[in-house]
Design goal:
Largest sheet of chain B: 6 strands, mixed
Radius of gyration of chain B: 21 Å
Largest interface: A-B, 41 and 44 residues
Number of strands of chain B: 16
Order of helices and strands of chain B: EHEHEHEHEHEHEEHEHEEHEEHEHEHE
Largest sheet of chain A: 8 strands, mixed
CATH architecture of the largest domain in chain B: 3-Layer(aba) Sandwich
Oligomer: heterodimer
Shape of chain B: globular
Order of helices and strands of chain A: HHEHEHEHHEHEHEHHEEHH
Distance between the termini of chain B: 49 Å
Strand order of the largest sheet of chain A: 2-1-3-4-6-5-7-8
CATH class of the largest domain in chain B: Alpha Beta
Helix content of chain A: 25-40%
Chain lengths: ~300, ~400
Amino acid sequence: MSSSTTALNESPIRCSSECLLRPGNTNCGGCGMSVSLTMLGRVLNEVGQNCTLVIPACCGIVTAGGYPTTSYNVPVIASTFGSCPAFGSGVAAVRDLNNDPEQVVCWAGDGGTYDIGFATLSAAAERNENLIYICYDNEIYGNTGGQRSSATPAGARTTTSPFGKKENKKDIMSIMAAHRIPYAATLSIAHPEDFKRKLKHALSISGFRFLLAHSPCPTGWKSEPADSVQLVRTAVNGGLFLLYEVYDGLHYKVNAEPDGETDPARYFEMQRRFPEGAMDFDAMRAECRRSFDRLKAMAERFPHEG
Amino acid sequence: MGLELVTGNHAAGYALAAAGEANRSARGTACGIYPITPQTEIVEFVSKYKFTKGRVIPVESEHSAMGVSLGASLAGARSFTASSSNGLAYMFENIMVAGFYRLPIVLTAVNRTLGPPWNIWADQGDTLMLRDFPWLQFYCETNQEVVDSTLLAFRVSEDRRVLLPSLVIMDAFIMSHTQMETDLPAQELVDAYLPTLNLPHQLNHERPTTIGGLAWPQETLSQRVEVDRAMLAVNDVYEECRQEFITIFDRDPGAPIDAFETDDADLILITSGTIASTAREVVRQRRRDGMKIGLIKMKMFRPFPADDLLRACENASRIGVLDRNYAAGMGGVFWHDTKAAFQGQRDNVLIQDYLTGVCGGDVTPAMVNEVIDDLAGRTKAERPMWKGIEA
């Protein structure tokens, strides 16, 4: 049994009306975003903090449910699609003027992050606004029924890339790190203790903090809801989704190495969004190795001490 | 402060900053800003202002400028911004949010022709593009009116019976870059006039809600009906805020419409912005020549002051509307709304549209005289007449 499974067993996720994400919401089974929201709520509880969520158009705002009810136990502002970090900047500015203790968390999907909100995100990062930006990346426009985004990996079939996407996924982490923000990190719900530690670190510092969570979406990925955690674990262990942190855009830390046993091809086989036989697995494996080697080289050359 | 020789932009910047500063004992002030000709000096003014409790955030687009102001407003701060022309078009989506989130943000808009082609001169098409959304609109004629309308707009917008954002509007260059003698009121007076903001739906961690999530047709409909109710409340609230303004500043910020010599007028011109200054002089001259003519300056365009208009035009049989705007396929927007106000109330009034100064052309006394002569000789209204096109 892996250590991550043990951690989950030791502290089961108890859902109550006190949770950030309350029970009774309408999210799909196996939704990675729901697990990430629950994690955020737990960590906030542990450190005794509260937050305001700013959410653009994405599944995260549908999660709230229909007016006047809300599935969130914290104040939520629905922003326009491309404006999440702008709304967040305004909230955070007034929070700081008044020395309020609450965190401001922008909670956005990959469409709002990589695509329509990208200029806004870049600008807020450049200004080093005092907020936490969490992108739950399900690699698809999920809310509108599954269209390609610039986070969709090459090969994936979506309704607007029906023959498989030809272009590679945008490397948003490198772009965000290049803004020299205090903290950028990747998160996986298959590594809850690592997830928690990074959230805690993000909550303990100020300035612009960017977190990227690999977020399984059974509806869009055409995968089994029960496989969600296993899928993203396969992505980490197979070297498809690297767990790492970048401090001040300069110092790197690798949090999990590919285990050398997990074949990343398994990740593709567990989902029906990749047309059978369309993937060049050897090229994909080579690319995984290259990406990790590059990251490792950065971490060795420019390590984060501590 | 007191009397100074300042541009319209300076006047607007001063009034916005003073209003923001007046909220320092509450949640303060914060806003997003982005430059565009000819309003840039306004955002420069507020950027260099030393707020006791405030932050002006220079962002990467107008869309985000309003985005920041929306977040700041929901967090309880007094908020504002400024824009023009294509900047307003780019901001459009978030401008709608301010109205529907019932946030009392004040936006100074310097009317500039929408491009392409790229033209920086005065035309009201940019703000009139926003006429169907829950924003109050105040068109100004002098730099003093910009200062006064800005302060008044905050009062009206923040009133619990209204809670809607306001556009305070002036003509590009004719006002924005022209100096006029203007009384810039001392901060103590602004403090006395503007109570600190207490937004009823400010973010609340004790009673968390989701602002702007999904709503079904019936819930959305009640929201629209509430907007309508708030718009209907504006007239009374405006008058209260106007009287209070007179008490504190010893100056009249003006009624929603400014009726000049309309009591016995058979022929009335309706216009807005700086065209009113020229038209008033011409009307004064025509009065001296014995013509029963009057002028109405529309200061408030939203909500549309239909009742005031009908009252002021009681004795008129002909109305000429001078529009510095053109809605494609229809004509002038002020004309269109004026006709709508009269329809079914006084159907026998001849209402003719004159497209004057559209795209920034000068509206001269000679042009206004041509309009009056045309109107006086008419037996029926025709489609809008373009003026100022050189043969």
